[in-house]
Task: structure prediction
Amino acid sequence: MMLAASCTVAEPEGAETSPAALQREITITATSGEPNTRTERAADGSVLWSPGDQISLFFGSGSDGGNVFTSQNTETARVAQFTGSIGVITGGNEVSMGNQYFWAVYPYNASASCDGTSITTILPSEQIATADTFADDLFPTMGRSTGLSMPFYNICGGIKFTVSESGITSVALQGNTGEQIAGTITACFDDNGLPTVAGITGGSDTITLSAPEGTTLQVGKAYYFVLVPTVFENGFTLTFTKDDSSTAVYNRTSKTTIKRAIFGSLSTPDADLTWRAYTPYVVSYQVADFGEYPYFFETWSREVSWSTVSNYMATTLQMDYAAFRESFTWVAGKTYCYKNGMVECTGSNDCGSVIFEKNGGSDSINDKFTISLSKAQEDNFGSGTAKTLYAQFVSAKNDVIYIGFKLKIGAKPTASFATKFSSYWYGDVNGEAGSTIRTNVRIPQSYNEYGGDDVAQYVIKIDNYWTSGQVTVNVSPAVPASVCSRIHYKYEFSQIQPRVGAAGRAITRSSSTLLSYNNTAIISMTDQSTGEIIFNYNDASKQLINWASNPTDANPNGRILYCNVDLVAYYVDSNNNNYTELGRMTIHVRFLRPITFSIDNTNHFVEGIPGGGDSIELGRFFSAEDWQGYRLFYYDSSSDTYVQGVYSGIYYCGYYGINSISIDLDHVATNQSLADGSYALLSSVNANAWLGVTNKNSGNYVPNGVFNLSLSPISNMANYSLSYQNNMGHADDYTLRIPVSLEYAWGTIEDYLFVNVYGPSSSL
Result:
């Protein structure tokens, strides 16, 4: 439950964000912002800091307890120095406060946090009693400042009391209207600069103050409940428990206000109370046993009238219904079940609800119980389990009766998926378990399912990889046909995606239907019902697709581009409100590079040939294939011609937008005379050597820059030669490394042409 309150903080003007944060040791001087602040009560009623006290300190904001700072005083004191390390603004060698806030809360705890406007910490509902004070690390205070001197203010208030009876081991405080008085609290400063509790999460309506184990509260000593500032609209109840398990109840019915930093005083509220042995009735007789209900997933509800249990009331409890209604009150809003061998509250009715309703003001056996489970409660209840849910009735004398209703939820079905086209599925990818499918760009004149015949389309429907064009969902245990009709499946991008690309960045899941890379959308799911996926056509996707390996399954470099898709089976109720997942499997969708740029590195030059050096026809080095292995262009040695592939009457080079091959002559490298096998620029290793491109028809020679070998027409590949000359007579073989690239519709494929140079002593 969240209790909300207004909370405003005026931040100082001119506050700046630090350009660099460094861990520095600093000391905070903790002072009192009001007469009574913190831990140990002194004789004059003030509150002192104790040696070893610790606070959580934040600069601006933080979580996980912030930074722990420890008091340096060696005895109790009104002012304490707290020292610790924190990342703070630095402008030089001195710590600069600027106008940014330090925030602090006592006591330190590892879950404390600060969002820059408020502090979140824990006020426990289980508190340890300490005579004439409150326990260490219990009473929370908070402060903020723009400097190293910080006033602290109380967050909470409380109730001070003494006892007259010996043997008391614990006292429980509870508001008569269920007010939340402890839990995870969020506090901020109000317009008057004083703390106010803005909210409580995981709240408790009860605080139990217990004597240390093996001891009891001392008669005449003062004890303290610490609680959030609260208005008990209908008063409060104190339940005293002795070491013999007897109990007594003090009830105050008038409106009571607990104020911040103030402890209201009660003198011996246990005096003159009636002490009773606590012997609650726990109903083991099941008022109703509803049997087993299948784990499907509508809200479950049943009604039971009081007439069903009237005989039990008369025979077992020896009490007629009129006497029961007069003596016992239903504890509203709480449902109980057996837990850890005893009857306990199930929390926020997390396993179901039992509600008791009176039929008007008269005694009536038509009063009824309603037992219900929502979808979320069914899940908490647990599939395949039986439980008894109890309503609790309490008398003014603290007698307790539990009335129970038993039911069982059947086993939750699980789903699996079948009927794959086995020839379309492959093994795992990059060592990740699971099935893999492949998708590719369109080929010329392929079937028209997605519309058009566009090489820019890169689409897959995962449904097409299953027989009959859809997934078969098998459910176990079997369910009725009416349930089967509400079991469906869908596809969504997985939460976990691979790291890909030269930089090793992760593909990120922007949503269940969109993946991004380097802040650019690259893969979209356009239809979750069929798993239709489109690999987007943009610069980022082009870069990735050409980073990936050639379209082979055996890939020693591991450069495989893929994404992860979850196939999810689920049940949805008749109102399409409650969604329950029954099973999922992860599918790896691999994206093949559209074409492979092949380079023939078997050709070679010979060292030291005079009169112009050695030459190789440039087109002999290069060819390309599509992802199916069809040849796009290549040299045909049998006819000594260059050929452009044709598919369905469409020339491949035009379809894929292949215009030219680029040779970067400015960055030719060699391993000549480099013993470690590395490469360096040819011009720096051997200034006398030259390499360029020669036009065989005109004799024109291109010695530098980027030469573009046009493939239009394809026969143009025969008109140029790669020429190399080095007349230094280098005796040993070495290699030239020449950067080359192929630009096409899906971007640029970059690679190296390696040409061996044989020395004069080589055996040709």
